């Protein structure tokens, strides 16, 4: 007769044993996987249906020992409605241009298909200090379509560097307004300790934030005061043109780009005009307002003297050795060679040579948007001024 208390204890232990989990990860077929589970659970008669039913029963009450559990399991998604997080097993180092791509790869295979732990987030806070503290070597903020993926993916080539590129989990937790504001820094740090936990061969950590996380820079710099900070921007005309071809989440209204400052919203942004109070929101106006918010946040960040500000055109003209010098990140000759080869290709389209986008000559505007565009352009050009001064100073 099966003692389910014993099986539950065996299952809890199994989820904390990297060697056993790796055997399950390597299972070639369902029959082999079930046989391994029968052995690990001390349940000789176990079949597929029993295994699935048993695993489902363990979900609601599962509380892991994070220090051991997170050696294999990686927090992959935040569920705002239930304030829970999902976990996937990751045995390989993170290497894709975006973290979501690594997570997608990790979801393949029998282990991730059959065992999908979910835990409440807040109760895990009591274990935060049991996890290694993180000290990011570099945090990257950006306006989107500014070359940030090229920079972050270059660091992924360094064998000792771990890169978190646009963690949706961290962004979703950070922007979930159901949490008390005093708790959010601790929750974000917990998520980063879990996702940014260094492997034995890793020594550095680079975090590239989502574009809409720019508003959170004061909190993030307070959390990690020793991190270098790079902020990338680009001519708004070119960013808008890029999002017209393929819109990012924040430019399609799928996430809320939060700003500390009130924005000079265009007349039609919320579908309100003197002629038609029921007009559809104007997408171009909305996107200009988002970029204006980015410009305001970037100005405040730059004035804090905590960041290196760089424009897309500057980045395009740099050599890898110059960028590493600017970031005070020494590279070996072999690494510089790898970066040079990497920069020839489009990081978002594997195997394709990089073809620079021809800058748009103008942005089509209707009369009501002209003022908003001019305000945005002025804000961008003001940010360019110190960069031009620095360039002239270096030339002299």
Q: Nutshell version of this structure?
A:
The protein has 396 residues and is α/β, with parallel strands linked by helices. It has helices at residues 4-14, 18-26, 30-40, 48-58, 66-69, 99-106, 110-114, 148-156, 168-174, 184-195, 217-223, 236-245, 283-303, 312-317, 320-326, 333-342, 370-395; strands at residues 73-79, 84-89, 118-120, 138-142, 161-165, 204-208, 228-233, 308-311. It contains 17 helices and 8 strands.
What's the arrangement of secondary structure elements?
Blueprint: H1 4-14, H2 18-26, H3 30-40, H4 48-58, H5 66-69, E1 73-79, E2 84-89, H6 99-106, H7 110-114, E3 118-120, E4 138-142, H8 148-156, E5 161-165, H9 168-174, H10 184-195, E6 204-208, H11 217-223, E7 228-233, H12 236-245, H13 283-303, E8 308-311, H14 312-317, H15 320-326, H16 333-342, H17 370-395
Parallel strand pairs: 4-6, 4-7, 5-6, 7-8
Antiparallel strand pairs: 1-2, 2-3
Helix pairs in contact: 9-10, 13-17
Walk me through the structure:
This protein starts with a helix and ends with a helix. The protein has a domain at about 130-395: Rossmann fold. It has 17 helices and 8 strands. The protein has about 400 residues and is of the alpha/beta class. α9 packs antiparallel against α10 (about 185-195). The protein is elongated and about 75 Å long. It has a 5-stranded parallel beta sheet with strand order 5-6-4-7-8, with helices on both faces. A 3-stranded antiparallel beta sheet has the order 1-2-3. This is Sulfotransferase domain-containing protein. InterPro entries: P-loop_NTPase.
